[in-house]
Amino acid sequence: MLTEAELEKLFDGMRHSAFRLETLPVYDVPGEADRKARYFAGESMEPDDATREYLEMMQAEISSGKRWHKVHVLTRPLTPYLRFECEAGYAISTRYGQEVGILDITDRAAPPALVGVGDFWLFDNETVALLRYEDGRFLGAELAPTSVIPQYRTARDVAEASAVPFTEWWAAHPEYRREHQKPA
Questions:
Q1: How many Cα atoms within 13 Å fall on the side-chain side of residue 12?
Q2: Where is the DUF6879 domain (predicted)?
Q3: Domains of the chain by range and CATH?
């Protein structure tokens, strides 16, 4: 199992693209605890220093011609975490150039190529890191065998072809914005 540090090395070696498929309704990311608390308290959603540093690095890579793209497969109603992810995550990362798609399967079946496919990163169309989670908590990643990489390329292609750009999906679902939520 790769550690987070070993997974980071895959980003450092990326030559032209990093694609991420997200499938979970909740991610338990220790580094997001403060931002989530601020979000749910109605405070600023602007990135903290560590998040801004990551976004600026991603933006520089995009400016140099690399592609950062992801699709999140989800169902409505959104979990509180996904509301946070959309408004304090995707709405900001797209401003920095990340391509984010939403594949909403609330009213339709998931495309067959995505059934049973969990979270993964696909680097440069040739390296797949399978991400392992337990209750949304990251456990580590495993490199997929070369023989199954075509399956993950297909999953990426199908996810992107089936997804709606985040900004379009978000504009169609204002009910999930923080200003429309009732206090707990």
A1: 6
A2: 6-171
A3: 4-180 (3.30.870)
Name the nearest CA neighbour of 15 among 154, 153, 122.
Answer: 122
Candidates 96, 150, 147, 122; CA nearest to 14 is 122
Dist. CA 94–CA 81, nearest whole Å: 18
Contact by Cβ (8 Å): 123, 184: no
Decide if 155 contacts 113 (C-beta within 8 A): yes
The rounded distance, in Å, linking the Cα atoms of 65 and 82 is 29
Confirm if 92 and 45 have CB atoms less than 8 A apart. Answer: yes
Split at pLDDT 50, 70, 90, the class of 48 is confident
Q: What is the mean pLDDT of the chain?
A: 95
Residue type, 109: A
Please tell me the least confidently modeled range out of 30-34, 45-49, 69-73, 180-184: 180-184
Sheet holding 67-74, edge to edge: 137-143, 127-134, 120-123, 17-22, 67-74, 99-104, 164-165
